[in-house]
Amino acid sequence: MMKYLVLSRRTPEFRREVLGEHYTFLDRLRDAGRLECAGPFTDQSGGAYILIAASLDEAKQFAFKDPLHTQGCSQLDVFEWNAG
C-alpha cells in the first residue's frame, strides 16, 4: 500500500453546506483504514488529505467520490506521495 496526497481546492461553486457530507466521507475512509490524516488550509482555499491505497487508480476512485468533488465544490488532484 502507498500513500496518496489529495489536494482539494475550492471552486467558485463551493457551498459550505456540503462540508458535513465531506466530513462523513472522510470518517468512512478513516474507519476503513484508508485515511491517514486530513485538514483544511488556514486561508480557507481548500484542504488536503492522505489516502492509503494499492495504486494511483484506486486512490483516485476513492478521492473522486468525495462530495466536495461530486457536487462541483472543489477540484481534486491526487498524487502518489513518497512520504516518510
Automatic annotation (TrEMBL):
A Pfam family: YCII
Record-annotated YCII-related domain positions: 2-82
Gene3D superfamilies reported in the protein's UniProt record: Dimeric alpha+beta barrel
Source species, domain of life: Bacteria
Family: Belongs to the YciI family.
The protein's name in its UniProt record: Uncharacterized conserved protein YciI, contains a putative active-site phosphohistidine
Species this chain originates from: Sphingopyxis terrae subsp. ummariensis
